[in-house]
Amino acid sequence: MHLCLIDDDAALLATLSRGLSELGHECETFTSATAGVEHLLHPGSARPDVLLLDVMMPDLDGWEALARLRAGGFDAPVIYLSARREVDDRVRGLDLGADDYMVKPFALMELVARINAVVRRRGQRAPFTIGGLVVHRDRPRVELDGRTLDTSLREHAFLELLFSEPERVFSKAELLHELWEIDFDPRTNVVEVFIARLRRKLGPTCSGLVETVVREGYRLARETPQ
């Protein structure tokens, strides 16, 4: 998942970011709430799957930060991370539009469980994952070993097809219809060229995920490439 963390405690931020990254999440961090809010509200910024937000920060507190984000149309799930443990604080955070509130200190795996829970409650679809490959389903994004691949919309759609029906072999005619919306032309090699390009992008560790079934088509490999 793509996570955004805003906390003025640089040491905590580094620890959380490292731990979450090791679990396969992509993390962007801000020690300034003002900078974080400006980034998230910028029209060109990618929407994170979950925002982790501190409450007590010097330039802009978490209450005002969330109020500005929600007013600006930011609708991603938000989890407050705070040393403030009073019930009134938790209620205030939830009333402002947060999805959860965690009191510091906390265990990393509990945080991960809370992140997964708010994503499920929001009805977001979890990405397809196999090995180091992550294929998001709520946005056209493909990641490999923590880095974003430069895949096209059609390449993303193809990977979604394979993952959604892992036992199915997609024929060349089906792929031409599904991805290009054209009738089958036995003379065209557009599918073969497309597959070869995608395999190069996936690199040596994951190119084998796209398996060729001779005289039938393509499917998701039955075994994860090593």
TrEMBL record:
InterPro entries for the chain: CheY-like_superfamily, OmpR/PhoB-type_DNA-bd, Sig_transdc_resp-reg_C-effctor, Sig_transdc_resp-reg_receiver, WalR-like, WH-like_DNA-bd_sf
Keyword terms, alphabetized: DNA-binding, Phosphoprotein, Transcription, Transcription regulation, Two-component regulatory system
CC per GO annotation: cytosol; protein-DNA complex
NAD listed as a keyword: no
GO terms classed as biological process: regulation of DNA-templated transcription
Domain spans labelled OmpR/PhoB-type: 125-222
CDD domains linked to this entry: trans_reg_C
Every Response regulatory domain range: 2-119
Positions carrying 4-aspartylphosphate: D54
DNA-binding feature ranges: 125-222
GO molecular function, one term: transcription cis-regulatory region binding
Record PROSITE patterns: OMPR_PHOB, RESPONSE_REGULATORY
PANTHER family referenced in this protein's UniProt entry, alphabetically: REGULATOR OF RPOS, TWO-COMPONENT RESPONSE REGULATOR ORR33
Designated name of the protein: Transcriptional activator protein CopR
Source organism: Rohdeia mirabilis
Lineage of producing organism: Bacteria, Pseudomonadati, Planctomycetota, Planctomycetia, Planctomycetia incertae sedis
